[in-house]
Amino acid sequence: MRPIQKSNKLAEVCYEIRGPVPEKARQMEEEGHKITKLNIGNLAVFGFDPPDEIVQDMKMNLSNAAGYTDSKGMFAPRKAVMHYTQGKNIAGVSIDDIYLGNGASELIVMSMNALLNNGDEVLVPAPDYPLWTAAVSLSGGTPVHYICDEQQDWYPDIDDMRRKITPNTRAIVVINPNNPTGALYPTELLLQIIELARQHQLIIYADEIYDKVLYDGHKHVSIASLADDVLFVTFNGLSKNYRACGYRSGWMVVSGEKSHAKDYIEGLNMLASMRLCANAPGQFAIQTALGGYQSIDDLVGPGGRLLKQRDLAHQLLTGIPGVSVVKPKAALYMFPRLDPKIYPIADDQQFAYELLAETKVLIVQGSGFNWIAPDHFRVVFLPNSDDMVEAFGRMAKFMESYRKRHGASA
Question: Are 149 and 223 in the same domain?
Fold first, then answer.
């Protein structure tokens, strides 16, 4: 029989967070091995539970969650999101500007589907959260990666961004706080990005899903709060700030200069209607989450579990010869660099595969985040301290063996 091939639209799509190396980890688990998963920010499996009041609200409202809702979402949670945007100083947002989704991921894909024609380009950071690159490609567009500079706290290189704008560029994606680097962008940098968008009439897509996961007293500024003459589309949700990944409850907010975007907004409305609605139980969690006690502050503040585990992970990683890490100001991840003189890696996926096979520690290679060289990887710092000490200890021994095998020494 004639082979059934996957769509050629998938040719440029990579999602290594759930790719071949994690598949090998799954097989090893089935064989009875215990795998330490440092590959994905799935908080619940590490004992980070959602606030009780969110869980109770969802239970109480399950009997009201069987029917379709408005295609953009229920009124009460959208109003709660509207108040949230007001608290972030994003001006001019009405209920109609807010779309609820099955996680921010669904809405990211929707926003690209509604915008892009074949040949259109979108500026996406490198490294990026790979869904952004995939969503652009699947929508017929071309992702163009601008460099984030590790020597400058992983901030976007504005000059590189400027050089990569062409007549086909439609938008700039800003991931702040950043996944995978944990960077948090200052207002001055955000204003420079806005100026580029203003000059070239570009949309700014702002992924702010980690805007409460902040360390050392740092504050997050929403880029959409800094101008009203550029079109912004901002994404957020309950997955990370409220440890509710599986609830698939996110939102998208259209703000700024909307008068010239009526046709695009009509496209968003069409796509929202086509999927009928976001899951209703997850919608019921939003109002309680946004209006309730913000327990994330306890986790990231002094003495908090996430803060302590970030500091421990940074200490353990930087203690390995040839490994350097920019200490994250936000989010749940680190993006360590392996000195190429000490670790001459040609294929970083193979490196991650060997690390898994020998240590039973699962990471994601840097190329999985569209990074330009095989010299980085991403880890989460979600396991408890004892498990991290054990995992990074095994990793350090593997690194020592790797250096010896390849004739390199620190």
Answer: yes
344, 256: one domain: no
Contacts of residue 14, defined as CB under 8 A and 6 or more positions apart, other chains included, come to: 130, 133, 134, 367, 368, 370
29 lies in the same domain as 67:
no
* Full domain range(s) for residue 41: 8-48+298-406
Provide φ and ψ at 158, rounded to 5°. Answer: -60, -40
241 plus 390 within the same structural domain: no
Say whether both 137 and 194 belong to one domain: yes
Interval 45-71 mean pLDDT: 92
Please state whether beta strands 203-207 and 36-37 pair in parallel, antiparallel, or not at all (unpaired).
Answer: unpaired
Alpha-carbon Rg for the chain, nearest whole angstrom, is 21
- pLDDT digit string (tens) for 262-297? 999 999 999 999 999 999 999 999 999 999 899 999
**Residue 125, SS3?**
strand
Is the residue at 2 inside a domain?
no
- Is 168 domain-assigned? yes
Number of domains, the chain: 2
Contacts for 242 with CB less than 8 Å, ≥ 6 apart: 50, 51, 54, 285, 289, 296
pTM: 0.95
Q: Coil, helix or strand for 362?
A: strand
Beta-bridge mates of residue 253: 98, 234
Has residue 17 got a pLDDT over 70? Answer: no
Give pLDDT tens digits for 318-336: 999 999 999 999 999 999 9
For helices 130-138 and 103-115, the axis angle rounded to 10 degrees is 40
pLDDT at 405: 85
